[in-house]
Specification:
Elements: E1 4-8, H1 20-28, E2 31-34, H2 37-46, E3 52-55, H3 62-73, E4 78-81, H4 94-102, E5 106-110, H5 115-123, E6 130-135, H6 140-149, E7 156-161, H7 166-177, E8 182-187, E9 195-200, H8 201-210, E10 217-221, H9 227-246, H10 251-262, H11 266-274
Parallel strand pairs: 1-4, 1-5, 2-3, 2-4, 6-7
Antiparallel strand pairs: 7-10, 8-9, 8-10
Length: about 280
């Protein structure tokens, strides 16, 4: 009888985010396939987990996947982990999982932390609909081409970037999307030096020019809004605000309530109501 492949989400920084189910799974399997054994051993030591490890990363050759598959076919249970977050999500694992599916191997997922959703939650941006891009192309021309294609994207954009490329990427965002485009940079989430910076591309670029970034970086760009649609939205929001005021609610309280509800500036609602 074949074994089972467990796709395990691991902490993105703070080891205390490891779930009880993750710990139980890692203790129960016969082998753990990990992106970097030197990195993963810190998590395993924290929870006194002693298992056979095998390295499996983006540069592993197909023979490595075949070897892991052979262990599964022989009946061994294997946990797949990456350095942080969910395997296969901008991390190794997709090819191995596909081969396991084709071989009829049973697969179970152990959900865990993910930098993209953590960054979205802490950003305060629209989370009703978003696009996860992952890492942008390392070459400037390809990076600009992709960013240009996303210029009018009506959903929140979530990107990953390496610290040594952040300033170059901000330069490209400034050129393709405009220096006034608002962005959020979430760095080292859940770690001691967690940092979340929000502002225009120009402001963020200025900050990181003076404070070179380190660690894992998520970059979020708010949805692009068609100005005509935006104006109609503001008219409707202003009407709702006016109804609250006419019903007896204090003007400042009504403006604040609707601004928070629709994530717009109070001044925009005020101008629509009183500066026509």
């Amino acid at each position: 009888m074949a074994g089972k492949l467990y796709i395990c989400g691991t902490p993105i920084g703070n080891l205390e985010d490891a779930s009880i189910r993750l710990i139980k799974t890692l203790k129960s399997v016969d082998m753990i396939a990990c992106e970097d054994t030197r990195h993963s051993i810190k998590l395993l030591n924290r929870f006194n987990i002693k298992k056979k490890l095998t390295s499996y990363h983006q540069h592993s050759n197909p023979g490595k996947e075949d070897n892991i598959l052979a262990h599964l076919i022989r009946g061994e249970n294997i946990a797949l982990i990456s350095d942080a977050g969910m395997p296969t999500i901008s991390d190794p694992g997709e090819s191995l999982v596909n081969k396991a599916i084709q071989a009829g191997i049973e697969i179970e997922v152990i959900p865990g932390p993910s930098a993209c959703t953590a960054a979205l939650a802490i950003s305060g941006l629209d989370s009703s609909s978003f696009v996860f891009i992952g890492f942008l192309p390392p070459k400037t021309a390809k990076r600009k081409e992709l960013l240009t294609s996303l210029k009018d994207e009506p959903r929140t954009l979530i990107l990953y970037e390496a610290p040594h490329r952040l300033l170059k990427t901000l330069d490209d965002i400034e050129v393709t999307l405009g220096e006034e485009r608002l962005i959020t940079v979430a760095r080292e989430l859940t770690k001691i030096h967690q940092e979340v910076k929000q502002g225009s591309v120009g402001q963020i670029k200025c900050y990181y020019s003076e404070h070179p970034p380190r660690g894992e970086i998520s970059l979020l760009i708010p949805a692009h809004h068609n100005e005509e649609v935006r104006k109609v939205d503001l008219i409707e929001i202003a009407q709702e605000t006016n109804e609250l005021i006419e019903s007896g609610m204090d003007r400042k309280k009504a403006l604040k309530m609707k601004a928070q509800e629709y994530k717009v500036q109070k001044s925009a609602i005020y101008n629509m109501l009183f500066n026509k």
